[in-house]
Amino acid sequence: MLHVKSICMTSAIALSLGLGLAGEAAAKVEGDTIILGSAISLTGKYSTNGIHAQNGYELSVKRINETGGVKVGGKTYKLKVVYYDDESTPARGAQLAERLIQQDGVKFMLGPYSSGLTKAIAPVTEKYKIPMVEAEGASRSLFTQGYKYLFAVLSTSEQYLASSISLAGQIAEKNGRKASDVTIAMAFENDPFSQDVRAGVMDDAKKLGMKIVIDDKLPRDLSDMSATLTKVKAVKPDLLVVSGHSKGAATATRQLKEMRIDTPIVAMTHCEAAQVTAKFEGASEGLLCPTQWAESLSYRGQYFGSAADYDKLFKQTYEGYKSVPYQAAQASAAVLVWKDALERANSFDTAKVRDALAATEMETFYGNIKFSAAGNNIAKPMVLRQIQGGKYRVVAPAEWASEEVVFPRNPKY
Amino acid sequence: MWDNISLLIIAPLLNIQLLLDGVLIGAIFALAAYGLALVWGVTNVKNLAQGDLVIMGGYVAYVFTTLGIHPILALPVAFVLMFGFGWLIYRLIISHVIDRDLFTSLLATFGLALVIQQLLNLIFGPDVKIAESGFDILFLFGGQVTLAEIKLVSLILAGLLATAIVIFMKTSRMGQAIRATAQNPRAAKIMGIDTDQVYAFTFAMNSAICGAAGVLISMIWVIQPFFGTSYSIRSFVIVTAAGLGNLPGVIIAGLGLGAAEQFSGFVIGAEFQQATVVGLLVAVLIFRQLQMRRHRRVVA
């Protein structure tokens, strides 16, 4: 009989993670190269999206360098980004930001991936008065701290599902009802992101005078929503909004089907991550899903052309992408903002560059970019896509919509 | 909260919906809890990785769906695979802590839970997975109450599995040895029973039962690497309420817990569904404590 009583445990192996990736110390501008710095998640739990963001940064850098570079003070410069891997941990991110600024002398920063990492790094860049253009931190709390050197190209998280409220109002009015007659059922996870989303929904619902009939919080380890959905079935709201990351989207879609919920408008976040179109073909029909960006939008800009052109170029440049994640698109947009601001500042003085950033007003393939005093982008709306025939179609806001919204939703249960 | 209660009174069919959803899922909780009771009773190890073994079984079903095989066929496969895994874990870890104090075995199985979670996260990623059964939905009371057929099928399968295990425990040589060891390990040893082998078999069987429960869970709910803990807690609540070696008690407690979760989710909100489980555990412990105090007084 196998009986190993004494197993010699090998002692712990100390793993020292070498950081000497960047070799030479980079200054803000070296010869004809402007150095941007970024701590980004290349390993750890955010690595998938961290790498998407890095690919986005790199594609934009390549494009700018190929099409004439950045002109400052009558001289043409190339762009280069110095990356460090923050291992998806905020403490590491903050350390690396210090390192980029203090040791490597970087004066222009690109953001990390996720709100959490951005929250960790922003105080550092703020302390050294180093401007940072970030593309991956959506939390509304980033823009209530009074930061002067933080600029974000993406829409903040409270906007994620807010547009579904105004859409429901418009639909009600079209059908001869008042917007204030609309009843809303909400199920949001009790985490910072979903509660931001909830705050946005609440604000808009209040503005339009809509009535919230169900307001459930979902647990972190959510795997069953049937109690909430039983309530939905009983009170028959006009609109159901759900936000609980991919587990929320998967659970909701499955149980909507199981319980034959016929709420005419259903909006939820993370449809893509939960792969609802593939896993619940039919049941996912007509769901409204918010996104920062989609290749089918009619946005255009100077460097990449249209959103569709960007999509094509990205797929050509990076193998293995069936669709371009918005995380990559917004990262590319952040680099474009840097080029634009450096040229307008016509200087490498960080104070002047910051002021130029604050005055940004540009049209890009990713959408329009204009920063509020708090630093978030107020010119680009969150778009709402509806699943129609198993495909994501932009249905709101109206000026960017490619398709009419299907109302009531027509799931094939 | 009062709105929700009045809703239940106005529309009594909602009660039936909640009861059905709760009881049917409760049957699967009972299955996992029975495994825990078995290990607890025989080896005196309180297995904190119970729920993680359940989730592992769920991933077997998920792998089946990715291969284009119906997840229900994963049931026997998960049973056998998890039996092997359980045996291995017993030999590697449990056998070394089985004679130690309670704290050591708790720490060891807690560590095991963490390792399983992280390994699943590495292999399958943190997104939720499902194993779609493709079964239809039943409409009761003119469509007012819906019931996914997979839940009924799961109930039947769970019932069959439990029956098979009971018959095995009653009639087979190994089953008798397990029961003998549970009653008195020293006496069993003297009678020539290889108790170490019995322990290994018991742990492996528990793991197999969990695996089967996981397959059923993955077809009804969703699975994710870190969801195991909630199943561990549920198992503990059920076993604590029912007591060891009390199969009917485990079944009733399991079904009751399932229903209690649904009703609390409906009445006080989904975020308290889990809190209800833990709250019930506390209530059961207090009740047991009082019961024992009364008992002690009688004895004295």
Overall domain count of chain B = 1
Q: Pair with the most extensive interface?
A: A-B, 40 and 43 residues
What is the straight-line distance between the termini of chain A? 55 Å
Oligomer: heterodimer
What pattern of helices and strands is seen along the backbone of chain B?
Answer: HHHHHEEHHHHHHH
Task: Name the average pLDDT of chain A.
Answer: 89
As residue ranges, the low-confidence spans of chain B are none
Please report the distance between the alpha carbons of the first and last residues of chain B: 46 Å
* Range of helix content of chain A: 25-40%
**SS content category of chain B:** mainly alpha
> Order of SSEs of chain A, N→C?
EEHEEHEHEEHEHEHEHEHEEEHHHEEEE
Number of domains of chain A: 2
Mean pLDDT of chain B: 92
Question: For the record, what is the CATH homologous superfamily label of the largest domain in chain A?
Answer: Response regulator
Q: What is the CATH domain class of the largest domain in chain A? A: Alpha Beta
- The rounded Rg of chain B comes to 20 Å
Explained architecture:
The complex is a heterodimer of chains A (413) and B (300). With 413 residues, chain A is α/β, with parallel strands linked by helices. Chain A contains eleven helices and 18 strands. Chain A has helices at residues 47-66, 90-102, 115-127, 162-174, 192-207, 226-235, 245-258, 276-279, 307-317, 326-345, 350-358; strands at 29-30, 33-40, 70-72, 75-85, 108-110, 132-134, 150-152, 183-189, 211-218, 239-243, 265-268, 288-291, 300-301, 305-306, 361-364, 367-370, 383-388, 391-396. In chain A, the strands form five sheets. In chain A, strands 1, 2, 3, 4, 5, 6 and 7 form a seven-stranded mixed β-sheet that branches. A four-stranded parallel β-sheet of chain A has the order 9-8-10-11, with helices on both faces. In chain A, a hairpin with a 2-residue loop joins strand 1 (29-30) and strand 2 (33-40). The termini of chain A are far apart. Chain B has 300 residues and is mostly helical. Chain B has one domain. Chain B is 78% helix and 3% strand. Chain B has a two-stranded antiparallel ribbon with strand order 1-2. In chain B, strand 1 (137-140) and strand 2 form a beta hairpin. In chain B, helix 6 crosses helix 7, helix 6 (149-171) runs antiparallel to helix 9 and helix 10 runs parallel beside helix 12 (273-299). The radius of gyration of chain B is 20 Å and the shape is globular.
